[in-house]
Structure formats: structure tokens, C-alpha cells
Amino acid sequence: MKKVAFLNLSLHSFSQERVWEKFFGEGEKDSFNLYIHSKSKKDCRFSDYYIDKSITTGWGHFSLVEATIELIKAALEDEYNEYFSLISDSHFPLYTLDKTISLVKDRYKKTTFAKHFSFHTKVKSQLTFRRGVENYKFDEYNAVCQFFILRRKDAIKFVETFDHWSKFFIKDKVIFADEFYFWGVGKEIGVDFEMGQATTYSDWSIRKDEFGKIERNPRAFKMFSSKMLHFCRGKGFLYSRKIMPNTLITINPFI
Q1: How far is Cα of residue 44 from the mean position of the Cα atoms in its chain?
Q2: How many domains does the chain contain in total?
Q3: CATH number reported for the structural domain that contains residue 105 in this entry
Q4: Contact predicate 87/200, CB 8 Å
Q5: Are 92 and 240 in contact (CB under 8 A)?
Q6: What is the largest CA-CA distance in the chain?
Q7: Are strands 194-195 and 112-113 parallel, antiparallel or unpaired?
Q8: CB 96 within 8 A of CB 26
Q9: 65-67-72 Cα angle (round to 5)
Q10: pLDDT at 236 (0 to 100)
Q11: Is residue 210 one of the residues assigned to a domain?
């Protein structure tokens, strides 16, 4: 059976551990694998899924790409892992495990990237990449949503070529490489990908904080309701993002 590998690039494990425990506990056990790159490696109900090698990551730094590569390497050890779905600790599933896996297999015939939802971040990333890449001219500077679906043959390509392509990126600056590396390098190495349905909903709407400063990060949800669930499902997403430990969950996504 071809499996879906869930790759969790995380500060810890999951913000909503009980929800994810139910998600993974109520589906077909042989249909998936879970891998967690945990920055803290604190003991929790998902400790057994931590990968051995961890990278010290920094916000917006190239180290996020390095950590993602370690997740991919770990997942490639199981020859049955065919689909690689990148998620984070603040992700929240919108369907049951079995339904999620069915949707992944039905929708993602190729490695798939999705457009970035924030125009501001996209433009800022373009400027940053010009300072964050040395000695190589990529044909475009653009940002995509960092949460992708890779197919196995392409995951192998990214691992095999990483030592070469990583040397062109500045390592000690905020360059948002996680929003460019796999898409940009994928074009260079001939990955047959498509720009398609994003897996993850993030609310990038422009808003102001308590001091009147415009927020440039995705909204952290105070509540996740049936209205939000139906909205996200209707837009084709598999997960919503920025569901925090204190987010009030008023629905059961597994019904």
C-alpha cells in the first residue's frame, strides 16, 4: 500500500495534541507514517515520532529548509511512503485520517505547490531572496506556500541534490527560504510539479494590532467553529493553520 508521510516541522509536537491523537488513532494504521522534527524534543504523547537528527532552526532562516530535508530523509527510509505532506505544530485536520489520505491520493497526482496567500509576504520575499542567494541566478524570485505535497521520486531528487543547491543560499539571515527553495530548486532540477490546490488554510488578511501596526503574520485563531470548518472544506483545504493550544474548538472535524 502506498502511504502518506506526514512531515511535521514543529517547535514541539502539535498545539492540539488530543485532536491529532484521535486523528491518527481512528484510521487505517498501515496507510500513513508520521515524522516530527521537534525543536524542543520534550516528552509528550508524540515523542516516539521524533526523528533522530534535528537542526537548530531560526525564524525565516535557511535552517528551516535543512530541517525539512531531514524530515524527508527520515520518511524515505520507508519504501512505501509515496506522498509527503508538510505540516506544522499549529496545523489542524479538517477530515478524518482515512478521508485525508483519500483526498491526497485523488488530488495530488504530481508534486504540488500552491500560491502564497499574502501579497505583502510574496513581495518581501522577492526582495529578500535577492540578498539571500549568492553566485547563482534563479530565473524568478517568488514565494509559494511552504506547505507542499511531494511525490516520492521528487523527494529523492531534493535529497540527492541538496548539498549542491544549498550552497547558494545565505545561512545567517532571514530569507524566507522555506517559501522558495523547493519550488525554485524544483524548477532547476526538472521536477514535474504543478501549481495547484493548497493543503493548508492560513488567514493572511490585513489587520492591525493593539498599537495600530499592521500585522504581517497569519492570524492565530481564538476559536475554530463549524462555520470555519465548512469554509475551509469548501475551499478544498485539508488542514487549517494557526490553531493554537488556547484556541476554542467548538466542532468535531471527524464527523
Answers
A1: 21
A2: 1
A3: 3.90.550
A4: yes
A5: yes
A6: 53
A7: parallel
A8: yes
A9: 90
A10: 97
A11: no
